[in-house]
Design brief:
The protein has two domains: about 45 residues, no CATH class; about 110 residues, AhpD-like (Up-down Bundle). The radius of gyration is 16 Å and the shape is globular. The protein contains ten helices and no strands. By secondary structure, the chain is an all-alpha fold.
């Protein structure tokens, strides 16, 4: 399969500006692909903007969900970008890379494990089990629960797009981490 041609950076920046996108996101490879369809790019950008910049879920929790989805889908673009983002947020490598085998990650709390279970269950069957949901309801508000489900679904869709379209990593994003 031939990868989707990325828009030139200047064209992507212009299209993104028309949609009110942050320049650094409009010129990221994912949006250089998505901006072939301004309406799709606008929708994805709106969800990302809401869940990263206007969220109620803690950044670390959000990143655990995204990292787990990236790992489970074998999406180099999602996983590696969010390894970089998580490191920028100051999250320890043990926590970041622990999503690869969460049962062996000794630093995870029971809540972390339930959040990762949410990501796994949505990935596997598109539904969170009643036991996982009940445990999460004890720790998260309804608003946060909605965000957690939408985070998992959004980045699952992003993984599908980046893998199908053959979107390469951005120049500032290292490839799969070792270990």
């Amino acid at each position: 399969m031939t990868p989707l041609r990325l828009l030139p950076i200047e064209e992507s920046a212009q299209r993104g500006e028309k949609l009110g996108m942050l320049d650094w996101l409009a010129t990221a490879n994912i949006f250089r692909g998505l901006l072939h369809s301004p309406s799709a790019a606008s929708a994805v950008y709106g969800v990302i903007d809401a869940l990263i910049f206007h969220n109620t879920v803690a950044a670390r929790t959000r990143e655990l969900v995204i990292l787990r989805i990236g790992w489970r889908t074998s999406s180099e673009y999602v996983f590696c970008n969010h390894v970089r983002i998580s490191r920028d947020l100051g999250i320890a490598d043990e926590e970041i890379l622990g999503v690869r085998d969460p049962e062996r990650c000794v630093v995870y709390s029971e809540t972390d494990r339930r959040v990762i279970a949410l990501a796994d269950e949505l990935h596997d069957s598109t539904q969170v089990t009643p036991s996982t949901w009940a445990a999460l309801e004890k720790v998260f508000t309804p608003e946060e629960l909605v965000e957690l489900v939408v985070i998992a679904g959004c980045w699952r869709a992003i993984a599908g797009f980046t893998k199908t379209a053959g979107i390469p990593l951005d120049d500032d994003t290292p490839s799969w981490p070792e270990g």
